[in-house]
């Protein structure tokens, strides 16, 4: 017979193990972005229902604005209510977005659904991303891969899955979003049993106040991480907006699945690059990842200009590979310098800047597209990427490698786990529970 404290006993009964919490949080973060990627190859279906390019543009802008607001205002929500309930809220908002996408018949339906999906993507990195890092334990490098690559894993998976299910006739466009909504709720229920890693603290109004967190000990690594995402994310928005046009021009196909594959090609090898980056130092991973991404981007642009589908595909896949290396390296450079209490705010700041750059490029690209060809629009996106690559490489070269920097969490950052050892002077019976 042994004894333990009520808190410890309750934790054993009601919480997942820390490893299972890590896996569930990682699945939740990726799934939120899968939800966001699902509508991308279905735009031609909505066009047949009377929606036009302007409607798609408005929905895209609302998506990015909602994501930015979610990051800015709700990115630190987990500091107040805990990682668990902030993560559950993100998945439920994503599920609501899927419900709105079940029967898109008007521009308002599409805009509201995409807006809720964008809000979920804004809420998820601060809560789920921080929970992943908190629960990682000896899986520190894996947590860097997940937090750095989750959007680039989830978005193409969602696009490919929805495209394949609709193209094959297994599910209708309505049924796809019903399935996604149900799976999001199921993941939310699973996460509700996860092991909490922070104590609830602070006033809710203070947490919700728009704020960008820049930890003093991690300013340069934070700038490097921002530069990596700013350099690489806007190209994904180009594939998202114009993937179906590229498929028609290069491959002569109007297939939903082919449009999804074109979009996925820029991201699908991202986790492979992230895993390979563990073989070298974090700073070298950033430099090689950004440099390789710049070269691969040039190859893809030349292929697009000359109409070579094979070379374009190779360049796109290589972009995803090097993007994964750069993003994971930047997270390995950053995360050891950030205290647990600051993780949600720091991750929200990085993703806010990334979403902001995508929104700016999307608006500018739409303006250029009204009077120029797709090739000119692509070169504009690429030029922006090359400038950001240059800045990121310079920052990484000058910065110190923080891969082995010690983590110094504040005293109240982690939940205390009391170990109670019975002794002769037994406390009151109400203070104990039986194992």
Tell me what you see in this structure.
- The chain is mostly helical and 435 residues long.
- The chain has a single domain (3-196, 215-405), classed as Growth Hormone, Chain: A (Up-down Bundle).
- It contains 16 helices and two strands.
- It has a two-stranded antiparallel sheet.
- The N and C termini lie close together (7 Å).
- 54% of the residues are buried.
Strand order of the largest sheet: 1-2
Order of helices and strands: EHHHHHHHHHHHHHHHHE
CATH architecture annotation? Up-down Bundle
Largest sheet: 2 strands, antiparallel
User: What is the helical fraction, as a range of percent?
Assistant: over 70%
- The helix/strand class is mainly alpha
Helix count, DSSP H or I runs of 4 or more residues: 16
Percentage of residues in strands: under 5%
């Amino acid at each position: 017979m042994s004894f333990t404290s009520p808190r410890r006993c309750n934790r054993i009964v009601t919480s997942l193990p820390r490893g299972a919490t890590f896996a569930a949080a990682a699945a939740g973060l990726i799934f939120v972005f899968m939800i966001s990627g699902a509508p991308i190859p279905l735009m031609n279906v909505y066009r047949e229902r009377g929606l036009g390019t302007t409607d798609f543009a408005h929905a895209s802008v609302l998506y990015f604005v909602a994501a930015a607001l979610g990051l800015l205002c709700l990115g630190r929500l987990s500091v107040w209510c805990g990682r668990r309930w902030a993560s559950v809220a993100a998945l439920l908002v994503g599920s609501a977005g899927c419900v709105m996408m079940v029967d898109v018949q008007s521009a308002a339906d599409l805009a509201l659904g995409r807006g809720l999906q964008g809000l979920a993507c804004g809420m998820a990195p601060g809560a789920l991303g921080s929970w992943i890092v908190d629960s990682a334990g000896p899986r520190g490098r894996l947590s860097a891969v997940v937090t750095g690559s989750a959007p680039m894993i989830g978005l193409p998976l969602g696009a490919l899955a929805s495209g394949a299910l609709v193209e094959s006739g297994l599910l209708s466009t309505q049924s796809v979003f019903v399935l996604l909504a149900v799976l999001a709720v199921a993941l939310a229920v699973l996460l509700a049993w996860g092991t909490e890693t922070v104590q609830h603290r602070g006033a809710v109004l203070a947490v919700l106040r728009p704020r960008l967190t820049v930890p003093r000990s991690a300013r340069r690594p934070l700038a490097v991480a921002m530069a990596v995402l700013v350099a690489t994310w806007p190209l994904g928005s180009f594939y998202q907006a114009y993937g179906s046009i590229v498929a028609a021009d290069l491959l002569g196909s109007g297939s939903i699945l082919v449009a999804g594959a074109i979009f996925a090609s820029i991201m699908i090898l991202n986790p492979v690059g992230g895993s390979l980056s563990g073989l070298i130092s974090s700073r070298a991973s950033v430099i090689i990842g950004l440099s390789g991404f710049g070269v691969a981007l040039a190859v893809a642009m030349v292929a697009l200009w000359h109409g070579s589908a094979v070379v374009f595909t190779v360049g796109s896949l290589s972009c995803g590979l090097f993007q994964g290396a750069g993003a994971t390296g930047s997270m390995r450079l950053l995360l050891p310098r950030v205290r647990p209490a600051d993780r949600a705010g720091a991750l929200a700041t990085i993703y806010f800047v990334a979403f902001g750059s995508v929104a700016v490029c999307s608006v500018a690209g739409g303006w250029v597209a009204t009077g120029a060809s797709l090739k000119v629009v692509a070169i504009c996106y690429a030029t922006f990427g090359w400038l950001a690559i240059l800045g990121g490489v310079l920052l990484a070269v000058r910065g110190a490698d923080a891969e082995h920097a010690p983590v110094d969490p504040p005293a109240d950052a982690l939940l205390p786990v009391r170990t109670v050892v019975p002794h002769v002077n037994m406390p009151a019976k109400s203070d104990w529970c039986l194992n």
